[in-house]
Amino acid sequence: MIKAPLTILLAGPRGFCAGVERAVQIVERSLERFGAPVYVRHEIVHNRFVVETLERKGAVFVEELDAVPHGAAVVFSAHGVPKEVAVDAARRRLRYVDATCPLVSKVHRETEQHFALGRRVILIGHGGHPEVIGTMGQLPPDAVLLVETAEDVAQLPLADDEEVAYVTQTTLSIDDARSIIAALRARFPRIHEPRREDICYATTNRQQAVKAIARRSDRLLVVGAPNSSNSLRLVEVAQRSGCRKAALIGRARDIDWAFVDGAERLGLTAGASAPEALVEEVVEACRRRYDVTIEEVAVTREEVRFNLPRILDPVSG
Fold this sequence. Notes:
- This protein is an alpha/beta fold.
- The chain has 3 domains: 4-16 and 201-298, 3-Layer(aba) Sandwich (Cobalt-precorrin-4 Transmethylase, domain 1); 18-101, Rossmann fold (3-Layer(aba) Sandwich); 103-187, Cobalt-precorrin-4 Transmethylase, domain 1, CATH 3.40.1010.
- 38% of the residues lie in helices and 20% in strands.
- The strands form 3 sheets. A 5-stranded parallel beta sheet has the order 10-9-11-1-12, sandwiched between helices. It has a 4-stranded parallel beta sheet with strand order 3-2-4-5, with helices on both faces. Strands 7-6-8 form a 3-stranded parallel beta sheet, with helices on both faces.
- The longest helix has 17 residues, at 18-34.
């Protein structure tokens, strides 16, 4: 049987970012240090493959701390948690390890600093996302105002001359955030902004990589979870950047081959919480159906690494 040719345009960078690698290592190192089971509050990252792999090693995922036995070891997810969660963990004498991505922690510190200086804090983000809940939970209730669209800016219950500042969720669409920031600047000309952009380097790089392959792709697949903000944004970026036929898949078994059939060039990338093994799985599934040629399209190289918490240092006691 003669296979139809298919060129796969592999976006680079793709897949795991430094914050996700660190979070997964924290769970694995916690299992080594404390022994199984180690409890994890919420999905450590938004990917079922990763979660199930860690479950097989002894991790137990729970929604809230009241499901964790008194005195047990627990890891907080990479998305960050409200301050009250750490307070509750200490009260119950849990051995907790915070796997919050350092770039999310940066946003937490900015939020606290603005509040301490008497500024009203505006958070650009998606309501209900764990990262947004965690950031808003750094301050007292109602101290942070959430905006999700440029249209929301006009509805903010603030005086136009009020002292305000904004921070952003780290996994937003760069283009969407830009329009909201423009609306904030127009209404609050003296608004205080982050010294460095809050949208993380990995989100930015993956979106730029998708833009680079979208215009050349007949179809485009993003490997990631349906509750992964950065993965969903990659689909949207692809559709806006020249490939209307872009779709999110969890792994190879989710591919709709009728969607791919007829394409000469298939764009392929992965969200920041999807491991490279799942990308390779998709490539192999394509090889079984098509005569595949791989073309790597890299827009930059990533060399960022984050240290693990000191509590997991073998010499820290």
